């Protein structure tokens, strides 16, 4: 059994189903092989297109909004070793931060005939895979 600290900051007060997202993230993390109870921390920021465009430009040098961005707490490409950070043992594993652009999710939901909840959940789980170290290229 895992313990999940899943924080949602919904800057635009969009109608996001937090319980659904919590359950989906928890389900994925329960599938991660661990032999003892673990606590995970993930944060989610829901933003509009303007704010997502700012993040996309700042962190990916790409103009315009994107659907989801993920920022792992520890980055294997980082020059700073994990040993530089000291976390209390009860903090568990801090996976990182996700940013989802709600208006992009709305557009995709309409285009693909899905609910916005389905699309937002897909983006969150896609970003979570990046936090877990799975990447596509």
Strand % is 15-25%
**Poorly predicted sequence stretches spanning 5 or more consecutive residues:** none
Distance between the termini: 32 Å
Sheet with most strands: 4 strands, mixed
CA-based gyration radius: 15 Å
Spell out the helices and strands N to C.
Answer: EHEHEEHH
Give the strand tally.
Answer: 4
Query: What name is given to the CATH topology?
Result: Collagenase (Catalytic Domain)
Kindly give the count of domains.
1
Task: Please give the order of strands in the largest beta sheet.
Answer: 1-2-4-3
Q: Helix segment count? A: 4
Q: Can you characterise this structure?
A:
With 137 residues, the chain is of the alpha/beta class. The protein has one domain: Metalloproteases ("zincins"), catalytic domain (Collagenase (Catalytic Domain), 3-Layer(aba) Sandwich), CATH 3.40.390.30. It has a 4-stranded mixed β-sheet with strand order 1-2-4-3. Strand 1, helix 1 and strand 2 form a beta-alpha-beta unit. Helix 1 runs parallel beside helix 4 and helix 3 packs across helix 4. The model has no long low-confidence stretch (mean pLDDT 87).
